[in-house]
Amino acid sequence: MIKAENLYFRYTEGEAETPFALNGVNLEIKEGEFVVIIGHNGSGKSTLSKLMNGIHTPTEGRIVIDGIDTSNEDQIWEIRKRAGMVFQNPDNQLVATIVEEDVAFGPENLGLPSEEIRHRVDEALDTVHMSAYKRKAPHHLSGGQKQRVAIAGILAMKPKCIIFDEPTAMLDPSGRKEVVQTIEHLNKNEKITVIHITHYMDEAIHADRVLVMDRGKIVMEGTPKQVFSKVDELRALGLDVPQVTLVSHKLKTMGYAVSDENLTVDELVAELCRLS
Amino acid sequence: MSIIIKALTHIYDKGTPNETVALDHIDLEIASGEFVGLIGHTGSGKSTLIQQMNGLLKPTAGDIIVNNLEITKGLELPKKQRKKYAAERKKQLIEVRKKVGLVFQYPEYQLFEETVEKDIAFGPQNLGLVESHVKQRVMDAMALVGMDYETYKDKSPFELSGGQKRRVAIAGVLAMKPDVLILDEPTAGLDPQGRDEILGQLKTLHDQEQLTVIIVSHSMEDMAKIANRLIVMNQGKVVLDGTPKDVFKEIETLEAIGLAVPQISYLIRALNEKGFALPDDIITVQGAIDAIQNVLEKRAK
Ligand SMILES: Nc1ncnc2c1ncn2[C@@H]1O[C@H](COP(=O)(O)OP(=O)(O)OP(=O)(O)O)[C@@H](O)[C@H]1O
Ligand SMILES: [Mg+2]
Known about the structure:
The complex is a heterodimer.
Chain A: E1 2-9, E2 22-29, E3 34-39, H1 45-52, E4 60-65, E5 68-69, H2 76-82, E6 83-86, H3 90-93, H4 99-109, H5 114-127, H6 143-155, E7 161-165, H7 173-188, E8 193-197, E9 209-214, E10 217-222, H8 224-228, H9 231-236, H10 243-253, H11 265-275
Parallel strand pairs in A: 3-8, 3-9, 6-7, 7-8
Antiparallel strand pairs in A: 1-2, 1-4, 4-5, 9-10
Chain B: E1 3-12, E2 20-30, E3 35-39, H1 46-53, E4 61-66, E5 69-70, H2 79-99, E6 100-103, H3 116-126, H4 131-144, H5 149-152, H6 162-174, E7 180-184, H7 192-209, E8 212-216, H8 220-226, E9 229-234, E10 237-242, H9 244-247, H10 251-256, H11 263-273, H12 285-300
């Protein structure tokens, strides 16, 4: 679905040249995969995501989305149709004064017939469980609801892939839960390829694969269990692990027969019950 | 520096069809030197409450007294008589805003200067400090948020990543050296190390300089680690108020109002359901490890 080869990117060329924000990224994301990207502030996550839907094009190397090279400027709308993006701040993404108009914005720009637009809007709102709010004003919604409307707006474009850049950073616990469940649903049931960028380590535990970025490079990757069992390496990269994993790790270091790959409360509880 | 709030009510768009009661008869007293976590779901009134604390919003009813200055004096009077207190109130507000620093939600949207240094210097310059003092304050504030002065001082704030912008915005308020520091979700979007660094720095400022700190946060884990007191809001009211240990025992109440408890609290509860008999007020990783070890050792005997 997404293939990056030897990808380099800097924001400014020439005299006021800035350092490479992406510093040699190689990456392949398969159709239907659920990939989480973690990394310290400024490590290049957002930059990478912006190259994934053609907002920026590579300084060197190439990135191909569903067979289309993003450097191919004529194809930019084809790329945006295939790879949608959802950002951090729910307030900056909603443009219309009524929820359903907001969701219709994308498909309208595609010039689809109005019946098709209607159908897509209803379907998208239904998928994120926001149909009941379709005639409401977005500014009266909670943060989690606003994000789900933003997601519906992307869904209405029928993308194959959605890139989420910290969609939960500004939400309260229930809003986070709503959005995380929505993302997982889109991947599992709607078969959408998901790239999810987050600083909440516990949001990564259901991913197929976790990529860790550091200074413009991918420095670690693997299943959540493989990645999060490397507590010390992650710490050195300015990152963390879920609390349960940390407890497991420390108990193991203290000599108890506990796996350091536990990601959930249930896994650790089962082990501790067996121990005693 | 204490903050006393009496019967505070705030209604947005009063008298219109959009009328919203954001704060509903709040009584609170925050003593000098407390480290308070303010939690509640989106729209529960947290942001409205903290904007009252430095006089950015005028309450619909009620009183706010900051460090013995009654910033709401006379507001309850009819318009004509209110004027009598206007000058005094204005003077007090200026005093209060110097002492009470407020870091807004999404403060990075308020960065506007050409360089990081200029942005952070903006506040101290307005205090009328001499250049060398302003520079010192900028350097200190940047150190506090973990940004190297030489690396970042001449960068444009717009060329920074999201988390880096956040740090600049927080540094701007720290450079004012306030006595009370109120931060609205300061760690949203920061990486784990940045989160720990900034919270650690706030804790140090609090411990060493007797700074009163009030943090609005959605991270229950962070609040468990750092706050001395948690105030929980729902629908414009304070519904729980106590130490994090006591507040996080109320799992059902918190979940019912859209909140959660730290993952550790869920772990402790699940273990207790299996007969581990751990104390039910454990809220940190280290606390959990110690208690689990205790039980395992006893059982091994
Ligand atoms: N518009 C821009 N102009 C110049 N440099 C930029 C710009 N945006 C980001 N950068 C730089 O590129 C690098 C990577 O930034 P990026 O925003 O991709 O990081 P990130 O991993 O998304 O960080 P965060 O976790 O803070 O969101 C950083 O060094 C940053 O300062
Ligand atoms: Mg980013």
